[in-house]
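User: Quick sanity check before I run a bigger batch. Here is a single chain. Can you write out its predicted 3D structure?
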Amino acid sequence: GMRIGKDLLKKDGYAVAIIGDGSMTAGQAFEGLNNAGWLDPSKFIVILNDNQMSISPNVGAIYRYFNKIITNEAYIKSRQKLKDLLKKMFGESSAKFARKLEEFAKGLITPGVLFEELGFTYIGTIDGHNLKDLEETLEKIKTIRGPVLVHVITQKGRGFKPAEDNPTPFHGISPFDKITGTPIKKAITKPNWSKAFGEALIELAEKDEKIVAITPAMREGSGLTEFSKRFPDRFFDVGIAEQHASTFAGGLAREGIIPVVSYYSTFLQRAYDQVIHDIALQELPVVFAIDRAGLVGEDGPTHHGVFDIAFLRTVPNIVITAPKDWQELRDLLYTGIYSGKVFAIRYPRGTVIGEKKKGFNKLKIGSWEVLKEGKDLVILAVGKYVKKALETADILNKYGFKPTVVNARFIKPMDYKLLDELLKINEYIITMEDGVLKGGFGSGVVEYITDNLYFNKVLRFGIPDRFIEHGKIELLEKDLGLLPEQMAEKIKKMLLNSNYKVVC
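Assistant: Done. Predicted structure follows.
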């Protein structure tokens, strides 16, 4: 798009797109390559950074030698002149035939025929750590007309032996020992939410061979490593192909399999169309395990999982849930697997809250849980914010207020019977969630209040209408006014001032 934009505005300069080998499995990558090959723009270069985590062709003397030949200026000029001459003398068919011969010869020793077929001149493979050769190659390809793809081989973790030997843990790093590469972590007695999910899924899969797990290139991060080892025939890593993961799950469900698809919340956005058309529309019983829901910390604005409640709430035929603790995660997973419905379970990053019990309990779909009885004021909280709601209630108790606290574990459908009861006896309704306010759980409560002609006063806590930057989760929550003491103070002001207004 930038290249064509420059052409339309008659601007000079190159447009260079850099893509990792893992991302080449995504449909959009090939959509872009196909479009570029058709438009045939010059001064457009795609650099494929292949760090051998996905695509792994050989890197050796013959490749380096051949690359020097095909980037030789004399070769490039002769190649172009021959193509122009053949086309002028014999038409398009002869030029295409010559190109096929050239592609066949190159295909014998290079892996780039696919890209040539898409309309690119393929250059590769190149040692990405040999800067002299790389710079020389990039300089020479400026003379090539049409789009060019440069295949660069790099090594993940180059220069740090622990990362070279075991690159996966260094994909997203935390503090580590500079000598050994071992992560520096505080002593943790409980698993994180991802591991708790993976362990529960294994327990259920041991008893039901129809249960399978699917992930789009997030086996380790989603807590599915052990599952993949225990049930290799029932584990499917489809690569960075979020759209396909959902449609694949739908196909499995159609045949009577019970698919559990694990996504990071932020990556589920890519599969929204498939969730709607390939699963929800057809009411196929697929369980979505939505990891990293809410703020995720240092990964920043591209990875905060704050939109899933809002975009899933609009889809018919889907159940949306959020566990308050470890055991409820297990219970919701069990409930979802045997619900016969499209079932989403969202849970955050970090150490799991609470404890687990033996076994699983089936929960009534749409049921909430009153955790603390009070009067005049009710707090409806979702997921990890249930704990914050209880802490906020304790602070409000010191001010003389006695809020009711409800675990709204079913975001959709809501517990309308309980909600009606609460609306009739509580003037003030507070909602808490780790997702965007616009279109989120709190919005659903407000919609119900408005549609049913209630006149309760509502205060919503969640993510405001802006992208949230990098930072430790607690610091981000403090900046957003989402710590228990901050929320308690805001609630107190509302209770003491009937004209109190909040701008979200």
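The longest strand covers residues 426-436.

User: Great, the batch can go ahead then.
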